[in-house]
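Hello again, I could really use a second opinion on something today. I owe you a coffee for this, so here goes:
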Amino acid sequence: MSIAVRCYRATVRYEPDLLREPPPADRLMETAYRRLKRSIIELRRPPGTQFSEQAVAREFGLSKTPVREALARLHRDGLVTPQPRAGYVVSAVTLSDVGDLCAMRSLLQSETASLTARHGLSAAEADRLQELCVDDEDGQLGGPRFEERFRHNYEFESIIANGCRNARLAAAAVDALDEIERVVRLALKLDPSMPPGRIDERRALVDAIVAREPDTARAAMARRTASAQREIIGALTASAAVTSAPIALPL
């Protein structure tokens, strides 16, 4: 079943980076930051990729100053690591950090789902959640329309996050989505299959929010994020990078 193309954003206050419009071209540091960030998150610069400030400046047609400032910001974000006299390297993805990210996401999103159910959504928001709930194209999460479907999924998450009516909580939940996007993309490249029960979990969540049942919504989101964590960790641990790694004795 195909998802409608229209995008409901009327009352969304906090948006994940994936859904934001590019900055104006005259904002050079913001432009360099966004282009670099998206290239890292979308795995066009995979973990471990080395590059220099000069090479990025040439690629983007910018001077070194905005690129240097963008790289400093990406370092604070934890996406790149400076190398002495060797430029930068795209930060690695570790199972420990992925576990922490998934746990934080579950805590934040479970609470936003509960509060959104308590406060209720507008008719337009509720309708849009129902539209976005069904995403079973070709029985897999990958495919030719992956980017469009991925954006729809983040729109789904954004409506729920912003519906909680707590600005700090909504911002934190959206920030968690930003942090985990690269990990989710990596997991889906490793295993793009559609897990059984995924759509049922989404329907249960939307039904609870629309029915304004906070406890049921919290439990439904907790189940959904727990399933996502199992899928992500499962894909990463089955990768050759993990299965072929040498096992050392603990010190």
